Structure formats: C-alpha cells, structure tokens
Fold these 2 entries.
Entry 1:
Amino acid sequence: MISSRDDVTRLILINKVRKGLKWRQVAEAVGLSKEFVTAGCLGQMTFDKTQAEVIGELFELPDEAIAWLQIVPYKGSLPSAVPTDPLIYRWYEIVSVYGTTIKELIHEEFGDGIMSAIDFSMDIQREADPKGDRVNVVLSGKFLPYRSY
C-alpha cells in the first residue's frame, strides 16, 4: 500500500536503478525539462494525468502511485535545517556566504521584492574546462515586487 508521496519516490528510485534510466531519458519521454521532471519524481512537483502515466509506465508504477504523482506535494525535501549531504551542503554554503549579496543586488536592480520559485526555471549543464569540468547552473525566476496596500 502506498501511503505518501515518499513511498512513490522510493519506488521510482528503486526502478530507476534497476532499469538503468537517466533523468534526461525520463524528461524526454515526459516532454519537460530534466530539472522539473527530476524534482517531480523526487516528490517536489505535480504532474498532470498524461505526464504521470508516462512516468508510471517508465518506472512500472501501480495505478495508486500514478494517482499520487498528480497530487500537490508538501514541498521541501531536506530532512534537516542544515543539510548533511556534501553537495547540498555546498548549496547551503553558497546561500550562507552569498545570500546577502544576492539579496542586495536583486533589490538594487529590481526594488523591494523576491525572485519567484514558482514562475521559475533551472538549467544544469556540464561545462568543459581543461582544469576540470565545471557545473553551470542557471536559475531564472520572475521578480515579484512587494506592493503597497
């Protein structure tokens, strides 16, 4: 019995490893970006019926799991306030060190507001470099100004 979105994520990860699938392959089958599809398969985004059915077929999921993929999840996947996984911790470190700089520069350029994580896109690519390949991450979010009322 599947009782949560976490159960579906576990099934997806088990079958991803078993079948040797790459997130890029899954995204191509679904017709969305690898970043969005990966987030959804890890329990952070909602899929429509058609998308959920494609994912269900790829990962050999039961109908109950396909239904869970269509339910809005509780977002926020980190198990602790300070992440312990080294890669995720480095992102935490980036925000800890550069967060105030990012905030200051966004406010200086756009005014008082936030960068949306809802009207948002992300692109992660490998960038070849003779000194060692680099991770190129582009985050693009709509600016949402605070309004007076």
Entry 2:
Amino acid sequence: MDQLQPLMAAYAGMAWILPLTIVFGAVIYTAAMRAVLRPEQKSFGYMRLGMDEVRVFVVYLVLSILAVVAAMVIFGIAGVIAGLAGSAAGDAGGAIAVVFMIAATVLFVWLLVRFSLALPITVDQQKFAIFDSWGVTKGRALGLFGMTVIVIVMAIVVSILTSIVILPLTLLAGGMADLSALEGADVGEIFSAMGPALVIYLIYNGIVSALMLAIFYAPYAAAYRDIRGGAEPVVVEPTPSL
C-alpha cells in the first residue's frame, strides 16, 4: 500500500484530464456519425464543438447510467432466482443457475441493441433522442445484433493485424530494453531507453483508435440512415467550428 500511494496521488493530480476526455469523446463520437449522416458538413475530420456534441454527451451519459441500473436489476433478479431455484433443485442447481444467467445476458444485450441507434438519431434530428431508438429498432433487433457481431469480429481482426505490424517496429526501436535495469531510474533515463518505442506506440495507438472509432460507430449511423429510407436529414445552419 505504501508503494501504491504515490501512484494514486499522481492519478489524483491528473483529475483535470477527465473533463477533457469527456469533451474529446463527445467531439469524436459525433464526428464519426456526422461523417455518415451529414457528409456535406465537412471540417477537419468532421470535428466541431457545438450543440450536437452537447446533445451526444447528454444522451450518452443518460443511457450509460440507465445501462448500469438495468444491468444491476436484471442480473440481480436473475441471481436471486437462480439461487433459489438452485437450492430447491439440488444437483441440477448449477445448470439452472447457468440458464438464468444466460437468459439475463440475452435480455441485457437485447436492450442494448434496442437503444443502439440513440446517438445517430440525436445527431441526425438534433434533439435529445434518448428513447427514440426504441421505436426505430422495433422488428430490427436481430439484424442489428448480427451487425454488432460483425463489428466486433472486424475490430478483433484489425487489432490483430495492426499488432503484427507494430510489434517488430517496437522491438527495433528499443522495446526489448531491460526494464529491471531501469528500476529506480529517473524520468530522463527511462525515456532515453524507452522513448523511441513509446513514440511508435503512441502513433500506432492513434491510428488504431481512429480505426476502432470508425468500426464501432459508423455502422450504427449507416444502419439508421438506411432505416430512415434515405430521407434527407433536417436542414439546419451549420455549427461553427471551434
């Protein structure tokens, strides 16, 4: 614990990063969906800072809180029922508990899919569309779930392929430095030994993060665009770039 306290203090001193993370997250999430839904509103990476980003942040925050509450309720109830049924069933209790937990997982994933178009609707219609996704995804949950599976598979493939590319570069840049020899060294010595590998990793992380952003967010925007039948979005005055 004595060794962890300086690390915890260092993280506490970086609390100012949290609001920046929130702002940047809202900007890049909105940019990914704007690129699909409003490609004519071009700017640097489709990034802006305005009411679109505020609405996306609010909707994302509310849905995240609701998802946590739903998970606690669904898995809590499933756990209680599974425990009671398992106690009454004796040797078959383990199998019954597994069935209930699988059912709870299916229900939770179904809810996530039903709300998966909330952010694209928010960007497209420029309103706080917290619950609008429920009606739009009616009868389409299975297709959206299949799309989500493909998205996850694509993300795994991209991660593996980029790792294959970056690993030899990192090793050549000093990624095999003897970390034990750096114990107790100051920051200057650490960066001198690991600096080139860290630079390569930061560049790699930036590229992969951009790819993952497109993989995870653009498909849902495209799905909503197709569901609405190609109708033109609401025409509004463009939000000035920051």
